[in-house]
TrEMBL record:
It comes from the Eukaryota. Pfam families: OGFOD2-like (PF25238). PANTHER family: 2-OXOGLUTARATE AND IRON-DEPENDENT OXYGENASE DOMAIN-CONTAINING PROTEIN 2. Its cofactor is L-ascorbate. This is 2-oxoglutarate and iron dependent oxygenase domain containing 2. Keywords: Dioxygenase, Iron, Metal-binding, Oxidoreductase, Vitamin C. InterPro entries: Oxoglu/Fe-dep_dioxygenase_dom, Pro_4_hyd_alph. Residues 215-309 form the Fe2OG dioxygenase domain. GO terms for molecular function: dioxygenase activity; iron ion binding; L-ascorbic acid binding; oxidoreductase activity, acting on paired donors, with incorporation or reduction of molecular oxygen.
Length: 350
């Protein structure tokens, strides 16, 4: 009798604790290894953005040291929160924790995914089934979830937000929202969404970015509201590809803006602005520079799924742009593995 294969172990790159630390007050991502290095690398630009006095710099130094420590504790603390939520939290909409059903998905999304998985499917045929927001930047849009499912998911997220359960930050730039793996929605919702529906779509849209080899993800919901996060600075995602779905509610402002790929020296003098459409998802490359304009009124909730392909990132970490220095991590980690998937033709991805 054969034995089951051991589950794959995912890792993060050691750079997670030193690279791309976001300083919201100065609108800057920095590398931080020591006070001397910080001064040497960033003192001129920090001064130009208002970090002028010794007190300003010491405050910044303290914040960066706290962020490094937070990142070091992140894996075990996230696992502890997930365990507590699983044992103690009572959902308001338990049906959203059921295995993803096609009834939750928009007909247009189902049709595009079904076409992408069919024999003879090609990019030209797929593009007839979705909206091309920017051919140059390869940004696309299509409905993802039905309105009833968006409403049910939002009600559950708000119920969790109002509970006394512990909550982790969605990422280093957003302070309000929910990590879906901690809430227990990775396995029933996001994993089948990636494996059954997004994988064939992304394989046709982004074959050069690992779209056909997606093997992990990081999914979270971000919330923008008065008195909380209202906008998002320019950045790129720690992902090969990204799905960003507007869940609601009623709001004005908050449009996304897109520049070039982060590897391409450029300015954001004339970025492409894209308005949110509730229920619809934007697909783009993770390395595409982007941000969010200030919210006007109301509340905006978005589901963001960072889609990762270890066949791509195992060779080059997108955050430090070096071969990753692997550290074992919880769950999907940051999508790195210690071995290449045996079936990947790496040459086809270069």
């Amino acid at each position: 009798m054969g034995t089951a294969a051991a589950p794959r172990r995912f890792c993060r790159c050691a750079c997670f604790c030193s690279e791309n630390l976001y300083v919201a007050r100065y609108g800057l991502h920095v590398r931080f290894r020591s006070e001397q290095q910080l001064r040497q690398d960033y003192e001129p630009i920090l001064r130009s953005r208002g970090c002028v006095s010794p007190k300003d710099f010491q405050q910044l130094l303290g914040e960066l040291e706290q962020e490094v420590e937070r990142r070091r504790r992140l894996g075990p603390e996230s696992a502890a929160r997930k365990a507590l939520i699983a044992s103690s939290y009572r959902p308001a909409r338990p049906e959203v924790y059921n295995l993803l059903q096609e009834a939750a998905l928009a007909p247009e999304f189902l049709a595009a995914a079904e076409y992408s998985a069919s024999s003879g499917a090609d990019l030209k045929g797929l593009l007839q089934r979705l909206e091309t927001v920017s051919e140059e930047k390869r940004i696309y849009r299509l409905p993802v979830f039905t309105a009833p499912f968006c409403q049910a998911l939002l009600e559950e997220l708000e119920h969790f937000e109002q509970s006394d359960m512990p909550k982790g930050r969605p990422n280093t730039m957003n302070n309000y929202g929910v990590l879906l793996h901690e809430l227990g929605l990775d396995e029933p919702l996001v994993t089948p969404l990636r494996e059954r529906f997004l994988q064939p779509l992304m394989a046709l849209l982004y074959p050069d970015c690992g779209g056909g080899w997606l093997d992990s993800h990081r999914a979270f919901v971000v919330k923008y509201a008065p008195g909380q996060d209202r906008e998002l600075g320019c950045h790129y995602d720690n992902a090969e590809l990204t799905l960003n779905v507007s869940l609601g509610k009623a709001f004005t402002g908050g449009a996304l803006y897109f520049g070039d790929l982060f590897q391409v020296p450029s300015t954001l003098a004339k970025p492409l602005e894209v308005e949110h459409v509730v229920g619809q998802g934007l697909l783009h490359r993770g390395g595409q520079l982007h941000g969010a304009r200030p919210l006007g009124t109301g509340e905006r909730w978005n589901l963001v799924v960072w889609l990762r392909a270890s066949a791509v990132r195992n060779r080059l970490c997108p955050m430090c742009c070096r071969k990753p220095d692997l550290v074992d991590d919880e769950g999907f980690g940051d999508g790195f593995t210690r071995e290449e998937p045996a079936t990947v033709d790496v040459c086809a991805l270069t």
